[in-house]
Design brief:
about 450 residues, alpha/beta, 3-stranded parallel beta sheet, 3-stranded antiparallel beta sheet, elongated
């Protein structure tokens, strides 16, 4: 029988927009499975009916498409309730899912008593002691049960749980051992019938033949429960890998409330998708944060084993610097259509002239204005500019013109360094600094250059 096709899933909840933390998980999954020649699944975990919205679902799809992270499979958990009901029925029939009638205040009081007695606040399985009559009385009071999964952490008597380790080899963290004996039986179904993530995720992973689960390290403990749940449903689980979480520059966890960290906000700010993907792929690895020329190059370079277990520190300044480097290295053919769409001409010579001065692609508009005009020249040294007009070379204006021209001006005026170049820049561009005039001057052209040197707006 052939080995199953490598399959991963990215499973956001449509209760908000994607941010740098969860997009890193998406990027790691996508690069991993593309390198393995497998399938990337987008699954919307939308069982939270109150907070999930179609607008957020559409936003997630839009963000992933903009980043270039195409998916091969798609599912919504809200469309799969029948499958979860089947799994629930199977677990009930096997005695692995049992009803509990405690209210949240009752559970909290019980946990408080356990803490005061120096015991861990683990659910004591009191509901297993209830007979049919007691359950009927609770339901007559209007109580509806929540349902807990009976963990396999005992021999014969579930009321006497014992130390029981679930061991797995984490793709990133190495050997992990989770003691099920120290855990509460997890709630899989709420009083209102809502299915919780632990169950729905396992059922989905089974049905869609997910082979690898790559997610944040905050899910390591959950993995022990989920492995037990896979076994209870008669399925072999996937392999798991848990990457470190992002922190801010101060070492604290990133706040999802910070809208500037959303992919939507970064797109609006003009960041290039490849810069975001490159940053997500290389932050928190054994190598430097770096830029890739393409998604294909990022896939070829990807190594899950290079991820560090130490927290990865996210700094916007680092992403900004990476983004600037991307633009500075970008060949013209990859930006030609976008430049044309915003009314910028000049072809490759213009792009080669200005790209080293850009932080955002749309900043090229300002430099195109410098080339095409009108520009109000700034006159700093009228005497020097008069000589510059007289000495402007005849013939075509090309990249060699600037050097020959300024050499002649310097010889005639005695100016050099800033005293020579700064007045020329102010007159030709109206700017204190900018791209090399060696490259800009041929684009500005003789006629506009001479007018600006003479103080005319051109």
């Amino acid at each position: 029988m052939p080995a199953p096709l490598p399959t991963v899933r990215f499973a956001p909840s449509p209760t908000g927009r994607l941010h740098v933390g969860n997009i890193r998980t998406a990027v790691l999954n996508w690069l991993f499975v593309r390198k393995a020649g497998g399938r990337f699944m987008l699954r919307l975990d939308d069982t939270d009916r109150e907070r999930s919205t179609e607008a957020f679902a559409a936003g997630i799809a839009e963000d992933l498409a903009w980043l270039g992270l195409a998916h091969d499979l798609f599912a919504r958990q809200s469309d799969r309730m029948d499958r979860y009901d089947e799994a629930i029925a199977r677990l009930k029939s096997a005695g692995r899912l049992y009803p509990c009638y405690e209210t949240p205040p009752e559970l909290e009081r019980r946990r408080a008593r356990q803490r005061q007695a120096g015991r861990p606040p683990v659910y004591d399985r009191a509901a297993l002691r209830l007979d049919e009559g007691a359950r009927a009385r609770f339901e007559a009071e209007g109580r509806r049960p929540h349902w807990r999964f009976l963990l396999p952490n005992f021999d014969a008597d579930p009321l006497r749980p014992d130390h029981r380790e679930t061991v797995f080899e984490d793709l990133i963290r190495g050997r992990q051992a989770i003691d099920l004996g120290s855990m509460s039986d997890p709630v899989l179904v709420r009083e209102d019938g809502t299915v919780l993530y632990t169950l729905s995720s396992v059922v989905d992973d089974i049905d869609f033949a997910v082979t690898h689960v790559i997610r944040g390290e905050d899910h390591v403990t959950n993995t022990g429960v989920q492995i037990a749940l896979f076994e209870a449903l008669g399925a072999a689980g996937p392999r798991f890998g848990h990457h470190s979480l992002l922190t801010g520059a101060d070492g604290r966890g990133l706040s999802k409330r910070d809208g500037s960290l959303s992919i939507e906000a970064m797109r609006a700010e003009g960041l290039e998708p490849l810069a975001i993907v490159s940053h997500a792929a290389t932050i928190g690895t054994s190598g430097p944060v770096r830029i890739f020329a393409s998604l294909e190059a990022a896939v070829a370079d990807f190594d899950l084993g290079a991820l560090s277990r130490a927290p990865a520190r996210f700094e916007m300044a680092e992403l900004e610097a990476l983004h600037a480097r991307l633009l500075h290295e970008r060949p013209f053919d990859l930006v030609a259509e976008r430049l044309a769409a915003i009314g910028i001409g000049g072809g490759a010579p213009f792009w080669d002239a200005v790209r080293g001065n850009l932080r955002r692609l749309d900043e090229a508009r300002a430099w195109w204005q410098v080339v095409e005009g009108p520009v109000q020249p700034v006159i700093e040294d009228a005497e020097l500019l008069e000589k510059a007009v007289r000495l402007f070379p005849q013939g075509p204006v090309d990249e060699a013109t600037w050097g020959a021209w300024t050499k002649a001006i310097g010889a005639a005026s005695g100016r050099k360094g800033r005293a020579l170049y700064h007045p020329l820049r102010l007159a030709l561009t109206g700017r204190e600094a900018g791209p090399e005039l060696r490259l800009l001057l041929p684009l500005i052209g003789r006629e506009r250059a001479l007018k600006r040197l003479s103080g005319e707006t051109a």
